[in-house]
Design goal:
By secondary structure, the chain is an alpha/beta fold. It has helices spanning 8-14, 16-24, 43-48, 58-75, 84-88, 110-121, 136-140, 159-179, 187-195, 197-206, 209-217, 232-247, 286-299, 334-351; strands spanning 51-56, 79-83, 98-104, 125-130, 143-146, 223-228, 250-255, 272-276, 303-309, 321-325. 43% of the residues lie in helices and 15% in strands. The protein has a 5-stranded parallel β-sheet with strand order 2-1-3-4-5, with helices on both faces. It starts with 7 loop residues before the first helix and ends in an 18-residue tail after the last helix. The structure holds fructose -6-phosphate. Fructose -6-phosphate (F6R) is lined by residues 57-60, 104-106, 109, 112, 156-157, 241, 245, 365-366. Catalyzes the first step in hexosamine metabolism, converting fructose-6P into glucosamine-6P using glutamine as a nitrogen source.
Amino acid sequence: EKGGFPSFMAKEIHDQPQAVADTLLGRTDATGRLVLDEMKLDESVLRSIDKIVVVACGTAAYAGQVAKYAVEHWCRIPCEVELAHEFRYRDPVVDQNTLVVAISQSGETMDTIMAVRHAREQGARVLAICNTNGSTIPRESDAALYTHAGPEIAVASTKAFLAQITACYLLGLYLAQLRGNKFADEVGDVLAQLHEMPAKVQEVLDRLEEVRALARSMADTRSVLFLGRHVGFPVAMEGALKLKELAYIHAEGFAAGELKHGPIALVEEGQPVFVVVPSPRGRDSLHAKIVSNIQEIRARGARTIAIAEDGDEAVEPYADTVLRVPQSSTLLSPLLSVVPLQVFACELATAKGLDVDQPRNLAKSVTVE
Ligand code: F6R
């Protein structure tokens, strides 16, 4: 069943182009408009919501953080992301105009179930984004949008993450289309770009040799840092989580802008730091800011590993290693930039002789609070 791969995780990483493609499949009509009737939420409800709150745990929560950047930009609806267990035990401000989006691969994560129940008690509408048909979270929600990643066996989530991000993009584009805001005219363009992503994910998978060699050379590493800005921030957090879970290495993800507010004190000679570099073609000079972050940590002895777009030459002088991904729009780029980080964690754990499918102390679905 591992399809010739050494582990389920390796197989699932390679299933990712399909997971994205299948999640996109059948969700547009003949004219190219998005159709998400399956969600079974009234259009009038979706028109009236004035806030979105994503609740999820772990990797699913990082998918929600990626969604926040896209949904706020496309829909101009405030979008908060909260860990389900934190949401449940404070006094969150939600009402009938709030759309709570519960993201879960298994649909059985107790922390997320409790958040869904709490949100509904407060009168919020709850939409589940879930990979498991008929599981508890979609059953207890008002509506469901399924990811079609197929069964995920390895404990660490990979293909479900890409499918969750894809479903969130569909939701954001659908809301923009439905509400007819300023961005509505661009929905078709973004959708076309989204349909190009499975082939681009495949391109990343076709050039993994360098990251594999890097991982094998780092089997003794004690600590790894991950930096990103904008959508690269949740990608950095996810890269750190994968490394903790699989290779039992101390890892932290930071927003690169926070560096000088504290974390830069951690940087000493030889400290490996992955930096998720935004597209140089993007707005807001984010790229220039991250290049200067790379310079700052390099000057303090860090071993810098950049995940950067094809054609981005500006990072070359400052990065010890550059792992390349195809060009894409900034908001869609997490589907590409996270893949080398997943592979890095999987390879490094394998190089340490660990069981990547069943890391110690972890369960595939966490059915207790
Ligand atoms: C990380 C991982 C966990 C899950 C989290 C939520 O690799 O697998 O962090 O993402 O436990 O699980 P689901 O999505 O099933 O609710």
